[in-house]
Amino acid sequence: MTLSPLSRKVLAGLTFGVLALIYLPLLVVVANSVNPSQSMTWPPRGVTFDWWERAAHSSGVREALVTSLQVAAIATLFALVLGTLLALALQRYSFFGKSSVNLLVILPIALPGVVTGIALNNGFKGILGVDLSIWTIVIAHATFCIVTVFNNVQARLRRLGTSLEEASSDLGAGVLTTFRLVTLPQLRSALLAGGMLAFALSFDEIIVTTFTAGNGANTLPIWILNNMFRPNQAPVVNVVAVVLIVFSILPVWLAQRLSSDVEAAR
Amino acid sequence: MSVTSQVPDARNDQAPAPALRGPVARPGSRLLHRMVWLRLSLLLSAPLAWMLLVYVVALAALLITSLWSVDSLSSEIDRSWTLDNFRTLAENEVYRNVALRTVGVAVAVTVIDVAIALPIAFYMAKVATPRARRMLVVAVLTPLWASYLVKVFSWRVVLSEGGLAEWTGLGSPGYGLTAVVITQAYIWLPYVILPIFAALERVPDSLLEAAGDLGAPTGMVLRSIVMPLLVPGIVAGAIFSFSLTMGDYITVNIVGGANQMLGNLIFINAGAANNLPLAAAIAMIPIAVMVVLLTAIRRTGALENM
């Protein structure tokens, strides 16, 4: 199959055009964080750091940031343990119902967000009679973060094969020793990458969070949602949005670096 | 981290062990070694219990709750079986309209995304140089992880009065369903590009060359060789954008003006309106749509590519 130079150019133009469009709104948000106009009219006339200062001194923003970090850290921890166990079970063993378990793991992200949200909301409030709190957010987030760790670890296990583990066991190492000294070290970067993706996923999740957050447990996205429609808060929301962009892109960029380092070392 | 640097370490630590312990490892370890099912159940029990207790039980409870009702006087949940909620859904026009609107928006977003993703994924996988390909993948992946809320917010800013859209002269459609479709198509586009790109990467170049050498024109190669191989990738991407759009009610809040989607009705009933059973019943609509879709699609094998 040969593509004419013209169609190559059209394809390239389309690809780079769409990519530019993908980044444009994000750049607008970044630019608006220093836009002196409170209603964010375009183009900005001048540069100001007043909004950044206001955001830095806002106790609401600070509390929301701390809550978000706590939730993401604990949910990631749960997801790391549970996702790794699942990946080991599904990649190294075959058993009845394996494909159902596989489906079960992707279900929380495959089903629409409101479904997961209302199911957990109803489970906590209607069935268990538990008050919504920061912990209900953590449980909800961990449930849909498992899949990112699971995917990363499973992909790594598949590439590793079993020969090293078999060698270790033939040399007399027990099951746990083999895991600790042979399997785990080889999983390290996959765990780090999966963990960072889980962290980023939790850090900016909003739909399930609105259903599972109690009063007073505001994550950063919920704070944005509550303040977005207040005209005098809009510029501060913009600054927080820039912070969120940095916080969610940085872990992914690091995760990317990690997995590409592994590729390069092979 | 590489295999070569790890293995000698492991061996050094382990070197005396076989000689000392021989085949007589600790009893617990020996038991684990012999009993495959024991190892498996130790691995599976915690995550499976979590998923079952937290998620499956919650979904089942949701179904049950949808068959309950709320006492209008005490506003407590009345735990006796009734189909009243579903009768309300069937008879009240509002629910039908909102359900149709939600599915309509989801279909529109999915069609737009697949149409944009196909040429881009093709360029990435088959035309770009390997170096450019790696950069493009990162460029597509990065905004996927940028905060969802920020992306919606950024479109609110772009489409606002006096915002970028008006400034460019293209004009803004204003806040409404068009803005919702634009924003959603924007947000979920990377989720559609990536599975199609992955499917295209698995199509060997030699296959395309062979078809060309045998005289097939480009259009025919694309139609009868590339497209059939892409179906699982397209289906996976379409499921993502469809499901994610159906489950979203924040976007319509932010750029949708006065419009509502199913998620809004669920949220209002679960919260302010204090009618969990009705909220649960409304949630059965997207669940039913997704179950029908996923069972129909399971046969194509697309679910393995997620």
Task: Give a short synopsis of this structure.
The complex is a heterodimer of chains A (266) and B (306). Chain A is an all-alpha fold and 266 residues long.
Structure notes:
The complex is a heterodimer of chains A (266) and B (306). By secondary structure, chain A is an all-alpha fold. Chain A contains 11 helices and no strands. Chain A has helices at residues 5-32, 50-57, 59-92, 98-110, 113-128, 134-160, 163-170, 175-203, 207-212, 220-227, 234-265. The mean pLDDT of chain A is 86. Helices cover 75% and strands 1% of the residues of chain B. Chain B has a single domain (87-305), classed as MetI-like (MetI-like fold). Chain B contains 15 helices and 2 strands. The interface between A and B is large, with 110 and 111 residues.
Helix run count of chain B: 15
**CATH uppermost class of chain A:** Mainly Alpha
CATH superfamily of chain A: MetI-like
CATH architecture of chain B: Orthogonal Bundle
Stretches of chain B where pLDDT is under 50 for at least 5 consecutive residues are 1-22
Q: Beta-strand level of the residues of chain A, as a percent range?
A: under 5%
Domains counted in the coordinates of chain B: how many?
Answer: 1
Helix content of chain A: over 70%
Order of helices and strands of chain A: HHHHHHHHHHH
Secondary structure layout plus pairing:
The complex is a heterodimer of chains A (266) and B (306).
Chain A: H1 5-32, H2 50-57, H3 59-92, H4 98-110, H5 113-128, H6 134-160, H7 163-170, H8 175-203, H9 207-212, H10 220-227, H11 234-265
Helix pairs in contact in A: 1-11, 2-11, 3-6, 3-8, 3-10, 4-6, 6-8, 7-8, 8-11, 10-11
Chain B: H1 3-14, H2 16-21, H3 27-34, H4 36-65, E1 69-70, E2 77-78, H5 84-91, H6 93-127, H7 130-145, H8 148-158, H9 164-167, H10 177-201, H11 205-213, H12 218-246, H13 250-255, H14 262-270, H15 276-298
